[in-house]
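Teaching soon. Invent one.


***
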Amino acid sequence: MKFSRKRIFLSVVIVLFLIVQVSMAAYLKSVADYQNAVKETTFSGIDVSDIPDGVYVGEYDVNFIDVKVEATVQGGEITDIDILKHKNGRGQSAEIVADRIIEEQKIDVDAVSGATNSSTVIKKAVENALKGENG
């Protein structure tokens, strides 16, 4: 009888160990995919003066960071950027990058120190808004 209980206990421990291993592998793959998505994010030069006045909505999602913005263009300039959604996991919010885009009138501004990935995703969401795309 004791041998049977030990065997059941050992079987349960082995199954739990395997479940943890599979879950950990899936999580690590998800993290690697997220890091690659951020690293491979590129920006194209947008001439804001060519964009008609209006309010544009764009998104960008790299799994752990998801951003949706609303960008306002008036008179050939970006006049406002509202961050409608910013899921950023453990990182800093980096929402100051929106102010930098408005100040410099370009998308590819310097990232916020300590929040590089969030900065990249916010910038790409703004670019997608101005290009009429979602990513």
Summary: The longest helix spans residues 2-39. The chain has a mean pLDDT of 88. Strands lie at 54-61, 66-74, 77-87. DSSP finds three helices and three strands in the chain.
